[in-house]
């Protein structure tokens, strides 16, 4: 009885059907691959369309603008989106290989035609380890995004209060200029009346010019502070009219126990822990690569001399005699140890930075309180009394200048202490990852 002849092409189709369970990916993987092919599946998130207000700018609005339109933050978000593709690719199985071989190209009885499909089968849990390491990399990218968001927020808070303090210093310089002009006019009237020497008027005009110089310097500092603030949301030319806030409201000073408790979940520390997990996953991936994959082959061969088709089944296994991935595994293990050492170093560094910022914030809060309740009122009343006394001829102009200089220095020290306190609070919030309480939940000194 003659057997029915099966062509090599048909036999190859049967082989493909046989290998289909090995070749076809899971439904989740198919959807992932299809979604990558479709650009709409991963839309690029553009920067926010929020526009900087032309009028007064509040701290909440400044933070919102910075977090929605900062280019550096957008770049970190793109990296997280890119890691999603890495996770998808990690789950993809190896493609099958179609091979064709013709022996003796002439049409003769000795010619043999072979068609086969080769499929690599991963052993040792390589695919699962690959997915695990990619997911840990995605976690690190997400932690980087969170840390970058806190960096931007801290920089925005510090820049905002720099603008507020510069605005206050301008108002102070303008008030001192007004007082200096009044002192100059009083000196001029007394010179005309012949009560004092013209040197007194010259001294008054020199003091007035000095205050004008100080006013010009503070105006330049305000312009620079405005540019720094607007740069946090990517605008090189500030549009806002002024920063709307109160500098005298200080941030709450956290307790040492609260800092220790919140340090355990600090974003930078969390990122360092995730890096250890990622390195451990990479080491496990290199360990699985020590196990060789096998290649299954199935196909058909047409032997013209015999006049029939022959099925082909093969198995290929590499022999790990020389390359056992030992070098890559050793590197991965040592990099895991390095990540653990960096985690310990990061924890020590953050503890030191927080302790310094905490002590600085406490000292600055006490300094601001002392300046606001004791030094500033006394310096201001002394200056006003000296100015009135000079107009009445009771004090010399040197005494007026000394009182003016003391008041100006005390007020400047007060504003600098306020700015430093807000920067120290922003630094603590940057490290701990807590919402900033600066000017939003602060305590106002009497």
Q: Pick out the low-confidence regions.
A: 1-6, 14-47, 436-446
User: What value does the Rg take, in angstroms?
Assistant: 38 Å
The CATH architecture would be Up-down Bundle
Number of strands: 8
Largest sheet: 4 strands, antiparallel
Write a structural description.
- This protein is of the alpha+beta class.
- It has a single domain (57-90, 122-290, 325-444), classed as Outer membrane efflux proteins (OEP) (Up-down Bundle).
- It has ten helices and eight strands.
- A four-stranded antiparallel beta sheet has the order 2-3-6-7, covered by helices on one side. The protein has a two-stranded parallel sheet with strand order 1-4.
- A hairpin with a 4-residue loop joins strand 6 and strand 7.
- Residues 1-6, 14-47 and 436-446 have low confidence and may be disordered.
How are the elements arranged and paired?
Elements (H helix, E strand, L loop, with lengths): L7 H16 L3 H11 L18 E3 H11 L1 H20 L6 E7 L8 E10 L4 H67 L5 H34 L10 E3 L4 E2 L5 H8 L3 H22 L5 E10 L4 E9 L9 H66 L5 H36 L10 E2 L2
Parallel strand pairs: 1-4
Antiparallel strand pairs: 2-3, 3-6, 5-8, 6-7
Helix pairs in contact: 3-5, 4-5, 5-6, 5-8, 5-10, 7-9, 8-9, 9-10
List its traits.
10% strand, disordered C terminus, 10 helices, alpha+beta, 65% helix, Outer membrane efflux proteins (OEP), 8 strands, four-stranded antiparallel β-sheet
